[in-house]
Amino acid sequence: MLNRVIAPLRHDIQDITLVQPDEVVFDNGLRVFVFSAPTQELVKAEFIFQNIFDGSENSLLHTCACQMLKEGTKTRTSAQIAAEIDFYGAYLMPEYSFDQTALTLYSLNKHLSAVLPVVHDILNDAIFPEVELETYIRNNKQTLQISLQKNDYVARRLFFKNLFGESRYGQVPTEEAYEKLNRDDLIALYQKQVQPQNCTLILSGNITDEVLAEIRELFGIQWQNNGGASRIVTPEFPAFVPTTVWEERAEALQSAIRLGMPAINRTHPDFPAIQFVNTLIGGYFGSRLMRNIREEKGFTYSIGSAFASLLHTGFFTIATEVGVDSTQATLLEIEKEFRVLRETAVSEEEIALVRNYMLGSILGSIESVFSHADKFKAVYFYGLDLSYYTRYNEIIRNMTAADVQRIANIYFDYNNLLKIIVGKMN
């Protein structure tokens, strides 16, 4: 009989094993990665397209094209598309990010044959109806007007604009930009970008031979390229100069603070160690910034930091909202935490706490085959493979106080941060 008085044995988290996908390349250039789980009744199909910018860096056009993918084809209205997907209990979701646009389908395996033709129709014959575009523009202009009243939204806009300038990463929506959207530009982008040779398909779930054969017929044979492959253009970023941008709002009760700087991305060998140090200072609920500014000072409900990886760059950011009377004090406390991080060795107890949190988070994030597919997707588009996670875990497990201080002195300099404050500087 189990003796519940005796605690279970504890052991450190070791390396994790990730599912290696099978790779298939169809004749039309569509690259397919298959994560098979025969006992899973659900199938997830992610059609991922690299965002193409030929000269113009108008990311708003890409956002609009993504969100309007389901708004009608030559043979189906938006209502008919929604009705067919809903009838079979499936879920179809367009997703936009800085570097990719995706159309993701979730469906029970037994209904896949009924919903795949709808996806095929969208990827071949979307028409971006004028009436739907007008609705999109009107709704988003109204949403923008409301959002511009929120300090945190304005701070985020100023942050990306000052960090990345006129590049696709720095573009922010305006009413004028929405008014310039037109159907001709959307169709031109769609025809250039939504092509099999610019697509990666990630399949996960119960991917039987029959399912793969059906997908090959619909998306390998009945989906053809419209022309030559478009070149992926690397964006140009302005020279970064740390500065303070303050937008005063006389009636503000809270100030939105956004700090940050350009940084390395996932391809750099220091990236895992940077994630460790970032977690320590602001990357989880027990971080130093949270303990100081929320728990001890009571200036905010939440504060956090992140090192984000983009395809062509990366960035570091700290974000919080505080009472206007605490704006200056919060900045001083953040500066103090950076100074302590760089000048004082971290205790072994804190290193162990962060290490266990990070390794536990990784382990907890791979509970299903869909999670394994997500882990693969996170490295594949950077030209990396799953061995990245072996190296990542090894670095996290072996971080020392000296490693933390070395990384802090290279990448965590308060004086190098862009500082955005929207509210009052009290």
Describe this structure in words.
- The protein has 15 helices and 11 strands.
- The chain is an alpha+beta fold and 426 residues long.
- It has 2 domains: 200 residues, 2-Layer Sandwich (Cytochrome Bc1 Complex, Chain A, domain 1), CATH 3.30.830; 180 residues, Cytochrome Bc1 Complex, Chain A, domain 1.
- A 6-stranded mixed β-sheet has the order 1-2-6-3-5-4, with helices on both faces. A 5-stranded mixed β-sheet has the order 7-11-8-10-9.
- Strand 9 and strand 10 form a beta hairpin.
- The longest helix has 18 residues.
- It starts with 21 loop residues before the first strand and ends with a strand.
- The model has no long low-confidence stretch (mean pLDDT 93).
Strand content: 15-25%
Overall pLDDT: 93
Number of strands: 11
Question: Compute the gyration radius: what is it?
Answer: 24 Å
* Low-pLDDT residue intervals, each spanning 5 or more residues: none
Largest sheet entry? 6 strands, mixed
First and last CA, distance: 64 Å
Give the helix/strand class: alpha+beta
Gross CATH architecture of the largest domain: 2-Layer Sandwich
Determine the CATH topology of the largest domain.
Cytochrome Bc1 Complex, Chain A, domain 1
Name given to the CATH homologous superfamily of the largest domain: Metalloenzyme, LuxS/M16 peptidase-like
CATH top level of the largest domain is: Alpha Beta
What is the number of domains? Answer: 2
